[in-house]
Amino acid sequence: MRNKLADIALAIVAIIWGTGFAASQMALDARLSPFQIMTYRFFISSVLMIVMFWKEFVKIRLPEIKSGAIIGFFLFSSFAFQTIGLQYTTPSKNAFITATNVVMVPFIYWVFLRRKPDKYSIIGAILTIIGISFLTLEGSFSVGSGDLLTLVCALGFALHIISIGYFTKKHSPIQLVIVQMITAFFLSMVCLFFAQDAVTLTQKGIFAVLYLGVLSTTVAFLIQNIAQKYVNATKTAIILSTEAVFGTLSSVIFLGESLSLKMIIGCLIIFAAIIVTETKLDFIKVKRQMN
């Protein structure tokens, strides 16, 4: 029963993150700058995390600060490229290109840890390249700047996932979450100060940043950490990768975005690449059982 509830919880996280793309677009439509959105988002999350986990917060020492700051830097970089990229592309493209981070992870492990990716990762990478070409290439075979920025965002999220996997073996996950949120808030605030492009919050902007800060950041991260105690990493990745689907659906429902057949094909190919890459362990387990 716990496993079933955990699956449902992770699906809820995917829905929250997916609809977060539409919320980010709403914030941009309210004339909030990317760094203003991020400053509000991570400030809200930092305050909530400190209040909810005060006993963990006061126990944080220098080793946790260093590790959490590294994770927070990758988190900040990822959201920065994602939010800025969203200004120049559609929420559905932004959602699906971001989801390609799960395909990048094994190749980053190969570069830094010399762990060669298996055939499933290679197949997933090829499918991803094909899918992105369907999704992003225009009639003139040019790639939009927003799509390229979102690809950098996907790389940042891949590094974020790897750094979390590395540092959570040494430190408290909750303490690392607190430090990374504070780090992301500080970096966002510094960039906002130098950019000097803050505007007054409107009712639409307030709703968007509250949704992003409370649900997409604080609640979603907490649910994910709790649910993953009962779900293996492979299934978790598959469930969470569906945020791209919910991102597309939310942009169609709430923002009135229209999808072309070419974009739909690209989305389906990228989603297939994610499934192929992240279910490789299940294929290997079945093969071993047959032998």
Question: Low-confidence stretches at least 5 residues in length (pLDDT < 50)?
Answer: none
Strand elements, count = 0
Number of helices: 14
Percent range for β-strand residues:
under 5%
- Write down the secondary-structure element order: HHHHHHHHHHHHHH
User: How far do the termini sit from each other?
Assistant: 31 Å
Largest sheet features? none
Shape category: globular
Q: What's the overall average pLDDT, rounded?
A: 80
Short description:
Helices cover 81% and strands 0% of the residues. It is mainly α. The protein has one domain (2-290).
Describe the structure.
- The protein has one domain.
- Helices cover 81% and strands 0% of the residues.
- The chain has helices at residues 2-29, 34-52, 54-57, 62-86, 91-98, 101-113, 119-136, 145-167, 173-195, 203-227, 233-241, 243-255, 261-278, 280-290.
- Helix 2 runs antiparallel to helix 4 (62-86) and helix 4 crosses helix 9 (173-195).
- It is globular and about 50 Å long.
